[in-house]
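BUG: 3D viewer hangs when loading the predicted structure for this chain

Environment: internal workstation, default settings.
Expected: structure renders.
Actual: progress bar stalls at 90%.

Input used:
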Amino acid sequence: MDHQEIKNLLPLAALDRLEPGETLVLEEHLRAGCEECEAELRELREVAASLALSLDQGGSDEVSEELIWERLKARLRSAEGPGSAGKEATRARRGYGAWRAATAVMAAGVFAIAIYASQLRNRLYRANEENQHELAAMESRIVGLRTEVTRARAEVSSLQRVLGERMRLEKVLSAPDLRLTRLQPLAPAPGAGAVVAVSATSKAAVLQAAGLPATPSGKTYELWWITKEHGPVAAGLFQAEDGQPVSVPVSMPPTGEHLLLSAVTLEPAGGVSKPTGAMYLKGVPGPA
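Structure tokens produced before the viewer hung:
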């Protein structure tokens, strides 16, 4: 552009209505040291600012800028004539309208983004609630499974104990030196009965009883070896469920002593060193 064309840009520059390329040309021209254009641009900006202050403050921004532009048109006409001023004015209005349209599009975009963000937030909230419900259900199921596993382990342990007792009993019963003592019921348990199996070679003794009343709270059943030398000798403790058979290992009879009798009494929990409770079963040892 020549100097006059750059001067024609000054009114538009005062209103910040230049195209990017025109702005670059004007800035380069001013940096080159054109004092005339710099002074005129400064004057035009002062005039535009004064006109803006003098306008009615209640009007819209678009009306205000239109009025400021109308007052600057005279300077455009004096610089390039009416045709040039009209051309530049049309371009300025077109640029301003485009700016307003772009602003509206941006506002609509921001509004759409806000709606989408709200919908996304609601979806996330619902998904979080669903996940919390699922986690609570899974935790409840895990607690139930743990309870079932604990119960299963207890049942397995009980079955292993019963199996071990039966294997021990079978081992004793199959021993060649098996000695049996049959215990008969007494008044407290008329339907009960028991057998004590002893094997010296196996170094094991087993009591198998049935029909005893359930062991009362704070009590225990206790087996006794009654010998000629020392009288009653504690042989073992056990619990019974009402009417259910029970098989437990017990101590061997005292070595070298004459066994006269075997008996079962009901004693305090933990057992005692000498019988104190009622006798439920008793019997004479069988032949060796």
